[in-house]
Specification:
Structural class of chain B: alpha/beta
Radius of gyration of chain B: 20 Å
Radius of gyration of chain A: 20 Å
CATH class of chain A: Alpha Beta
Number of helices of chain B: 9
Largest interface: A-B, 27 and 38 residues
Helix content of chain B: 40-55%
Oligomer: heterodimer
Largest sheet of chain A: 7 strands, mixed
Helix content of chain A: 25-40%
CATH topology of chain A: Lambda Exonuclease, Chain A
CATH architecture of chain A: Alpha-Beta Complex
Strand order of the largest sheet of chain B: 1-5-7-8
Number of domains of chain A: 1
Chain lengths: 202, 342
């Protein structure tokens, strides 16, 4: 079976409909969040490798896990002096623990474990706005969340239809707000009648 | 958010457009006429013998800004297809709907309803400003159109819908000249004639409809719909039936209204037209420029969309409608909601 994209996992955990819009409907829209994210990405993906204090930094490393059916590209992977890899995910926003980001990071770790034949206990999320890096432990529950999200994405791609909108606070930060229209009535709203035969506005 | 930017129209024959850093440089006979920042431009439409450098075409394509080539007289020739070519699933759903009689009928009914409602609104609005007997005649036409709207839910085939639309159109065009208050004896319309136009009103209508149809086709393309597969308009090789469908709801409120305004303000007068031997009429270049400038201003006017309840520039309404139609075709929305102008 085709590997599930790591980025799709993050979209799926954030909002299944957003995931379907991007990966099924191929809708993409920029907003200030995605534009800023892109800038940070370009920077993160710019260089190849560098070494500092015995830690080698690999950028834009292709990742794959045959066992779990996952693939993508890691923003930054750090190799510790003992050769053990740690994934680092760059986020443009402030430090805000979000399951979606942690699932994406943990999915990278699952790939790295298979590729390097090691076990990885933790990784890091770097928040560019606050220049803070926080540790994320890859607990059994988080690992299971990755596999559940993977199954969810597969199901979505097989069905090829849009799940209903979230219509909550998430939508305010979503660049696809306009294509998704979470708050617009799916049926005609009250007073909207194309077959109305009133002659003038009341 | 999608932003409404300007469409750059180039009509001067022999113009050459280059990419100059982040600008479009406009040259006529090797002389620089204008520099237009790319981030102000949403699309480029050129009439006749106008050249674009390959680098400019590439840059516009990369930014998903379509280029449309029309003949000098405004007939559609070509449009760039940019790397975002739409979602194949949406096209399959669109074709599936077009092959399904009941679903096609439902969409066609709503499109026709939108058109008739907006014709009615236009007539009633003009009736408020008209003099003498005219208000009553305009209101009567609106009542006639109302009668046809009442027939729409009963139509059982798309042909019947087209028949209803045709009956309404006769009522509408019959009183159209009553909405004009200046140079009435010159701007008289006896019947709608397509190419070649036999009178000034028809020449102006044909020109403005061409511009609007292009906006609608671009909107289809941007959303990923196939502009050729329509529902109210019959499929015909080479015809952008879906773009024409989307345009139906906007003809009266965008195009007709613009022409009425220009004539009533006497910005468009008999001097702007050339009458040829054998009763055909063309619009002078300067007047075409004036019409395009007016349409550009009008595109910026904000309306409250009755379905999304959002303030939307009139120029983006074709995009909103194309997206609503796409949602209906993909099963995300039970019915296609036409644009009803307030």
């Amino acid at each position: 079976m085709e590997e599930v994209m790591l980025s799709a996992l993050q979209h799926f955990v954030f909002c299944p409909r957003q995931c379907a819009l991007i990966h099924v409907e191929q809708v993409w829209a920029e907003n200030e969040f995605t534009a800023r994210g892109q800038q940070h990405h370009d920077r993160a993906h710019g260089g190849g490798t560098e070494e500092r204090g015995g830690v080698r930094t690999l950028r834009a490393l292709p990742l794959v896990s045959r066992q779990h059916g996952l693939a993508g590209v890691g923003d930054v992977v750090e190799l510790l002096p003992d050769g053990s890899p740690r994934p680092v995910e760059y986020k443009s926003g402030r430090a805000r623990p979000r399951l979606a980001d942690e699932v994406q990071l943990c999915a990278q770790a699952l790939c790295l474990e298979e590729m390097f034949g090691v076990s990885i206990p933790e990784g890091f999320i770097y928040h560019a706005a606050s220049h803070k890096r926080r540790v994320v432990a890859f607990t059994p529950a988080l690992r299971q969340a990755v596999l559940d999200a993977r199954d969810g994405v597969r199901d979505l791609l097989r069905r090829q239809t849009l799940p209903p909108p979230a219509a909550d606070d998430r939508c305010l930060h979503c660049s696809l707000l306009e294509s998704c229209e979470p708050f617009a009535a799916r049926e005609f709203p009250r007073g909207f009648d194309p077959f109305s035969t009133t002659l003038e506005d009341p | 958010m999608r932003q409404l930017l300007n469409t750059l129209y180039i009509q001067t024959q022999g113009t050459y457009l280059h990419l100059d850093t982040d600008n479009i440089r406009v040259e006529v006979e090797r002389e620089r006429k204008a520099m237009i920042p790319l981030h102000h431009v949403e699309s480029v439409v050129v009439f006749g013998n106008v050249l674009l450098s390959p680098f400019l075409i590439h840059r516009l394509a990369r930014e998903h800004k379509p280029v449309t080539w029309l003949t000098e007289h405004g007939r559609f020739m070509a449009r760039t297809e940019t790397p975002v070519s739409g979602n194949v699933l949406l096209r399959v759903a669109q074709h599936g709907c077009a092959c399904d009689r009941a679903r096609t009928l439902a969409v066609a009914r709503f499109i026709a309803a939108g058109k008739l409602q907006n014709q009615k609104t236009t007539l009633l609005r003009s009736a408020r400003e008209a003099l003498g007997n005219d208000p009553e005649l305009l209101r009567q036409a609106a009542r006639d159109i109302n009668g046809q709207i009442g027939c729409l839910p009963l139509a059982e085939t798309v042909d019947e819908v087209r028949g209803i639309e045709g009956t309404a159109a006769r009522a509408y065009w019959e009183v159209f000249p009553l909405m004009l208050r200046a140079n009435r004896d010159f701007f008289w319309l006896t019947e709608r004639t397509r190419r070649p136009a036999r009178d000034a009103i028809n020449a102006t209508l044909n020109f403005v409809y061409t511009v609007l149809a292009n906006d609608c086709a671009s909107a289809c393309q941007a959303v990923g719909l196939d502009p050729q597969v329509g529902f109210l308009h019959a499929l015909r090789p080479g015809r952008s039936s879906l773009a024409l469908d989307l345009m139906e709801e906007l003809r009266a409120v965008v195009a007709d209204r613009a022409i009425i305004t220009l004539i009533n303000r006497q910005q468009l007068t008999p001097r702007d037209f050339v009458l040829h031997e054998g009763n055909t009429v063309t619009i002078k270049d300067e007047a075409r420029k004036l019409i395009l400038a007016h349409l550009t201003e009008r595109r910026k006017e904000e309306v409250t969309h009755p379905l999304t309840a959002r303030k939307t520039p009139l120029g983006l309404v074709p995009h909103v409608q194309a997206r609503l139609l796409a949602q209906h075709l993909r099963g995300d929305r039970a019915h296609y909601p036409p644009y009803l102008h307030r």
